[in-house]
Amino acid sequence: MSNALLKYTHELRVGYHQTDGQRRVHHSNYLNYFEDARVEMLRAGGMPYKDIEDSGRLLVVTEMNVRYFAPADFDDLLQVVVETTEIRKVRIKHHYKVSRGELVLAEAESTIACVDPEGRPKKLPAEFLALSDLIAKQDA
Fold it and tell me: Where in the chain are the domains?
């Protein structure tokens, strides 16, 4: 299991369609940036989201808190760092930082729940649960 499931950096370039009339990124697009980073984190960690869905599990956002500090503009190259901060039986918590170079543009926290196709809680794959010990060691 790769440590990419604990911390991952995703780069993206701001597209024109993601901006408003002032060529600034609309705040709602940050949610897509966070999701793209989580999906790529899973892929880099050897657990593509498609495989998770194929196993009868869905990872759904149950909470998202975002703080905006500075705007991103059309054609900016951004880095989205996503870090897994907690893993429980059916929940994962992440922290995100969106930067342009050294300037932090936004930070966020999310809670992701693992559910079955009917929306009932379902235990996370064993590979995730094994990572909870690594997170505890990092916090110590």
Answer: 3-139
Instruction: Name which residue leads in pLDDT, 32 or 128.
Output: 32
Q: Which fold has domain 3-139?
A: Thiol Ester Dehydrase; Chain A (3.10.129)
Q: Cβ distance 9 to 41 under 8 Å?
A: no
Residue located via tokens 């990419």: 4
Neighbour tally for 72: CB within 10 Å: 26
For residue 132, CA distances in Å to 26, 52, 69, 96 come to 34, 18, 31, 18
Q: How far apart are CA 76 and CA 91, in angstroms?
A: 33
Pairwise CA distance, residues 41 & 50, whole Å: 13
Prediction pTM value: 0.92
